[in-house]
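README: folding subset

This subset contains proteins for which both the sequence and a predicted structure token string are available. Records are stored as plain text. Below is the entry for Class II aldolase (242 residues), shown exactly as it appears on disk.
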Amino acid sequence: MNVTLFHLYASVAPMTDSSSALGQERAAVADACRRLGAEGLLIGTAGNVSLRAGERVAITATGAVLAELTADQVTVVDLDGKVVAGTLQPTSELELHLGVYRRYGAGAVVHTHAPMATAVSCVLDELPCVHYQLLALGGTVRVAPYATFGTPELAESVLDALDGRGAALMANHGAVTHAATLGKAVEHALLLEWACGVYQRAASMGRPRVLDEQQQLAVIEAALARDYGTTHPVPPAQEGNR
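--- output ---
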């Protein structure tokens, strides 16, 4: 199937590049990290988050405690990885983030060691589409083969696993999501963690049912017909009958 909810809603609109925006983007990355920490998807210094602003990327510094991150712990690099703002070295997964921007034109990238996603990455070769909301990530979520963190091998395998997807799992490691905006990339990370939890609970009771291609297509058609995911006012005629 060539069409998924991910393709329908993944229009990319990275922030424009300006010096005045860099401070805002660094603050936004710090805010996202604190939210992910509060949600239990980030622990200690494990994980990294970035946001693209034109030809610049605001990205978490290596060794920073992410649940307590402040804007001055976010470094700004260009698309070649050269530091252009900030006093701290960027995350060891910098090449992974830059690779996502280069290959997929994303606006933001989130990498977590979320417990449910990490557990699934230790067992499965892919997370099957057990719930229609996974279509917002592209359907099944592939698991990139294990490689040492921060290596070109890991970055390349994760980039391949992300082809046509908004998320990938990293074997015995964690998860990565990307989107047009940082808010949406965070939502993808939360959705993936939820879906991994659903799968684990279902698998503990038996073999989880998986939505087939026809069922997935029906969901996409229904979402398009109903403009799923947005609010709609009550028609005037119905308002008068209240």
